[in-house]
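Field reference: sequence -> structure
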Amino acid sequence: MRITRYCKYLLTLLVLVNLSQFTQAVNRVNCDNDSLYISLLTCSAGDEIYSAYGHSAVRVRDLRNGFDVVFNYGTFDFGTPFFVPKFLSGTLDYMLSTSSFSRFMYIYEREGRGVTERELIMSTAQKNEVELFLLENLKPQNRFYRYDFFFDNCATRIRDFALKIADVKTDSCKRINPGETFRSCLHEYVGTEKWYGTGIDLILGVRADKPVSDYDKAMLPDHLEALLLKDRLLGEPIVLLERQELGQTASFVPSPAIVALVLFLIVIAACVYEVKSGRRLQWLDYALFAVMVLLSLLFWFLWIVSEIKITSYNYNVLWASILYIPMIVAMIKRRTKLTRIMAIANLSMIGAYFILIICGIQYAPTLAVSLALCLAFRNLCYILPKHVREIKK
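Structure field:
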């Protein structure tokens, strides 16, 4: 805790020092200053989940005053109390911070990440306006903002002020692109068969599957660069750092598709064993249904409690049903009739889920489909004809 507190003090001190130096530099800038350069820094993806989509920052360089600083809207504090609950509930604050350009490059070089620079093509007056805008945002009362990965992040903040100051009409870039969605944009980086991608697919609702525009896609650094380039606001690219493949310890982690197949085969084998042996593997149902309850609570939390808009209307709650709570209780108390009613209800919701998939209303990762099928078979065991349903405990 002390280390975190000292880090906060140090970060605040560095910001104040940079703010003081930058204020002095701005005071020396006049309207005909042609030594001021504003550029977009686009950083490649990193190995951590929070850096999997890359990063955007703004470099302000004043050759006359020897000033070279990077403005970063993507700063957060891991030491924030209740960090994970705040992140999941959409109440985590990010902030605008600054660092010297050399320090910024050192960090990305150490992480083996690539950095590309493109100068913003603006008039001198517009560049001065950008500079003053960033300085105003750096003030303690303005530097914090409520982070939203899709609608308010390090890339969207740059997108908004750049288009506004450059007086770019956004009608054309806000036209919807059929077939492109927030979810498909994320798949470009984490894929569909990696655990990152599958986890994200599970928590996103149907809003992630609606068509988006180039303006919307600019919430990702690469797409921000493409948008500004399309609007002729960026100069030629300068590769400052090439992405390096850092040596990592090789480890085998089965993909979600493999895990999904194994789970499905286990459930089928269990059903066949029960029919042939006349013995119920109820421990399997307890374990499977308990996991569904935990997933259901997570999905409902992200839908109802969280301020993250795009995790609402998540119909994965149909197969990860909260009804498994009364079903588990009924199973423990050997209430056969109530158990059968709950099984019918759960099986009906699983059927509704597959209808939504077929209609293209919500995307379903392989793992979700497999779990839904596993649950369908296990629920079916409780509503089959009498000679199967009343097998020995």
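Note: Strands lie at 36-43, 55-62, 67-75, 93-100, 115-119, 144-146, 176-181, 211-213, 238-241.
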